[in-house]
């Protein structure tokens, strides 16, 4: 294809193509409808397409399209070179990303408060703040404290934590708390008397005139229909008004396999539960994860099953139709190195920059805790039909880790900032190297560290 400098009015030269004669804005619009491989192929067809595909404007638009506008804005705010941001380099680095660098953050000054050691708590980023609630601590006791720390754009600074003392949910561990826009929605959990909960709470960060941070909880009125009480279940937000939960440990220690959706009205603090009953569906389990990886797809991974076995199965909840359905994603283990145990419980699974599902830590069937990072390649999962039986290969990729080496842990919590580049990890159960330790040889950890996706911008 030859290059032509004809106008967009239709006066094409005899040697030009109608496409190459289009106005640049029209060509950008067309290119942004194409997958990245097709765009790169077009760059080799003529000089004009090559020039267009080297344009900062195009690559900034591609970053917004594929990484998300929120991530792009957050990366810009944290960058020292906003006017000459390397958009093409960012996109290529994200597509090839396979490593993280860890930084220890939990070295508070003696004059600053800091959350105590705990596990099975909740940790979220909402409105540029870290919010931590509850959990279990030494002696089998539950905690009922809420901690808030403003993050801002300075990701390595000492965080100043504040506690919220009034109007908070009762103490518990094994609950879930998910972000819904500018709100948090908390559900369920277990207290130190073994009582399971099925209440739901709405949390919101507020900034005063002097920019100090406060936080409030309000119980959500759900009427007469609610899931059975439970803890150690999994939950995630599938849009800004719906939360999905699955499984957990119910009454009498029974592991559950049910799926429920809560639709929330923020203005009235009212919610409506309804159960999703499909076949097939994931077997009962606890300590697993649910992660929304797109507006219509949610991934379930791992956990502990009915027979106390630790699982490594992957399920997709498809919400792109008028009804929800579960589909098991069958994969082979050819990409898993020998000697590596993939099954795990008490891990975290977080959607990070580039739509990557990053899994960290957990423990296996022998209570061996882990500090490894794995990517479950969401792009390898095709659009699933009910009859899909395809066995996927190369779905798992282990990431390298450098910098601070944290203790292997399970039942910790992790959350990601708005850019998707910085992952905060707090607490969990670690081996009892230090005394005093629990009789099981475990101890509760009070460490906060930062996991940074390795990019050179």
Task: Give structural notes.
Pfam families: F-box-like, Kelch_KLHDC2_KLHL20_DRC7. The protein has two domains: 1-54, no CATH class; 99-453, Kelch-type beta propeller (Neuraminidase, 6 Propeller). 11% of the residues lie in helices and 35% in strands. The protein has six helices and 29 strands. A hairpin with a 4-residue loop joins strand 14 and strand 15. Helix 4 crosses helix 5 and helix 4 (56-67) packs parallel to helix 6. The longest helix is centred in the first third of the chain and has 12 residues, at 56-67. The two termini are 35 Å apart.
Write a concise keyword list for the protein shown above.
five-stranded mixed beta sheet, 6 helices, Neuraminidase, mainly beta, 2 domains, eight-stranded mixed beta sheet, 457 residues
Average pLDDT level: 85
The amount of beta strand, in percent, is 25-35%
Question: What is the CATH first-level class name of the largest domain?
Answer: Mainly Beta
CATH architecture verdict of the largest domain: 6 Propeller
Q: What is the percent of helical residues? A: 10-25%
> What is the total domain count?
2
Count helical runs: 6
The CATH homologous superfamily name of the largest domain equals Kelch-type beta propeller
Distance between the ends: 35 Å
CATH topology of the largest domain: Neuraminidase
| Shape assignment | globular
Whole-angstrom Rg: 24 Å
The count of DSSP E runs of length 2 or more, i.e. the number of strands, is: 29
Find the structural class using helix and strand composition. mainly beta
Lateral arrangement of strands in the main beta sheet: 20-21-22-24-1-29-26-25
Instruction: Note the main sheet.
Output: 8 strands, mixed
Report the uncertain regions. Answer: 1-15
Protein name: F-box domain-containing protein
Keywords: Kelch repeat
Organism: Flemingia macrophylla
InterPro entries: F-box-like_dom_sf, F-box_dom, Kelch-typ_b-propeller
């Amino acid at each position: 294809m030859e290059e032509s400098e004809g106008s967009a009015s239709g006066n094409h030269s005899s040697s030009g193509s109608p496409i190459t004669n289009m106005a640049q804005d029209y060509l950008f619009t067309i290119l942004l409808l194409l997958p990245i491989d097709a765009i790169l192929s077009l760059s080799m067809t003529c000089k004009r397409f090559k020039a267009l595909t080297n344009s900062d404007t195009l690559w900034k638009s591609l970053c917004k399209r594929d990484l998300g506008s929120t991530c792009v804005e957050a990366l810009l705010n944290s960058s020292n070179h906003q006017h000459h941001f390397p958009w093409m380099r960012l996109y290529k680095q994200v597509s090839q990303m396979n490593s993280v660098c860890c930084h220890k953050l939990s070295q508070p000054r003696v004059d600053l408060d800091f959350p105590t050691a705990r596990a099975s708590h909740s940790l979220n980023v909402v409105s540029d703040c870290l919010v931590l609630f509850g959990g279990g601590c030494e002696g089998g006791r539950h905690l009922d404290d809420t901690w808030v720390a403003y993050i801002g754009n300075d990701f390595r600074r000492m965080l100043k934590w504040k506690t919220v003392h009034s109007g908070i949910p009762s103490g518990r561990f094994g609950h879930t708390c998910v972000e819904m826009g500018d709100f948090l929605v908390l559900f369920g959990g277990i207290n130190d008397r073994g009582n399971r909960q099925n209440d739901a709470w709405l949390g919101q960060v507020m900034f005063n005139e002097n920019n100090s941070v406060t936080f409030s909880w309000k119980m959500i009125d759900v009427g007469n229909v609610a899931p059975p009480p439970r803890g150690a279940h999994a939950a995630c937000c599938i849009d800004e008004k719906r939360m999905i939960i699955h499984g957990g440990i119910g009454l009498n220690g029974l592991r559950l396999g049910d799926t429920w959706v809560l639709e929330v009205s923020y203005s009235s603090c009212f919610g409506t539960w309804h159960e999703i009953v499909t076949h097939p569906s994931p077997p009962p389990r606890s300590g697993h994860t649910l992660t929304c990886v797109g507006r219509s797809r949610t991934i379930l991974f791992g956990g502990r099953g009915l027979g106390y076995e630790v699982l490594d199965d992957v399920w997709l909840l498809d919400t792109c139709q008028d009804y929800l359905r579960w589909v098991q994603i069958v994969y082979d283990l050819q990409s898993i190195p020998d000697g590596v145990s993939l099954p795990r419980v008490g891990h975290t699974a977080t959607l990070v920059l580039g739509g990557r599902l990053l899994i960290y830590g957990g423990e296996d069937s022998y209570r061996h805790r882990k500090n490894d990072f794995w990517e479950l390649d969401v792009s390898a999962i095709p659009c699933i039909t009910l009859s899909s039986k395809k066995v996927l290969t190369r779905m798992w990729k282990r990431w390298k880790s450098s910098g601070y080496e944290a203790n292997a842990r399970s039942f910790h919590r992790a959350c990601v900032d708005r850019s998707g580049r910085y992952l905060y990890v707090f607490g969990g159960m670690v081996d009892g190297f230090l005394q005093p330790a629990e009789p099981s040889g475990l101890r509760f950890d009070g460490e906060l560290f930062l996991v940074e996706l390795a990019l050179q911008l």
